[in-house]
Amino acid sequence: MQYDFDEIIDRRGTGALKYEALLPRWGRDDLLPLWVADMDFKTPPFIMEALRRRCEHELLGYTVKPPAFFEAIRGWVGRRHGWQVETDQIGFAPGIVPGISSAIQCFTRPGALPDGFRAYAGGRARMRHVHPVQSPQSGRPGLESGRTGAGSGNLRGKRNPGHFR
Q1: Are residues 106 and 150 in contact, defined by beta-carbon separation less than 8 angstroms?
Q2: I need a surface site. Which of 13, 17, 29, 109 has the fewest CB within 10 A?
């Protein structure tokens, strides 16, 4: 898809966080918020079409992640980083900040983070500081067998009292 980087799309009044939060956060609404994860470009047509097709069903209850979801992630990580990950090592976060916040909860303990980091990561990160992660396989800090601590199956989604306090 060719992007039109010159087209201006006015998102004020649409509920877009980066615009709606200008006045409450910065005391003015004439700023240009240059967020990385929420850019002002149109969504590609193939994504819009997939959303339209899904919405035509009209029942939007809880769904499962199909095998193609996991295969796409496993394929990308394998091609991009040469890592082999298993399906049970893949988690889901609804956004970057909630994902970072979850990682902070998993890999830190109560204490203090630098102010900028605390502000970025949100309320759940407050009063926490970095605690070194120890590999359950070797007992050493850092990477183990090409995986990070978060990617090793027995650490994802739970607190391991032997390694996190």
Answers
A1: yes
A2: 13
CB 105 within 8 A of CB 130: no
Question: Exposure of 104 by Cβ count < 10 A (0-12 exposed, 13-18 middle, 19+ buried)?
Answer: buried
The phi, psi pair for 141, rounded to 5°, reads -75, 155
Residues in the chain: 165
Coil, helix or strand for 108? Answer: strand
Using the structure block, give the residue that is written with the tokens 């090409």: 146
Distance CA 140, CA 117 (A): 26
User: Quick one: 89 exposed, middle or buried, by C-beta within 10 A (0-12, 13-18, 19+)?
Assistant: buried
pTM of the predicted model, to two decimals?
A: 0.51
pLDDT per residue of the chain (165 residues) written in tens, 0 to 9: 677 888 888 898 899 989 999 999 999 999 988 887 777 888 889 999 999 999 999 898 988 999 999 999 999 999 999 999 999 999 888 888 788 878 777 776 666 554 445 445 555 455 555 555 565 656 655 544 444 434 334 333 344 333 333
Handedness of CA 103, 105, 110, 115 (dihedral sign): positive
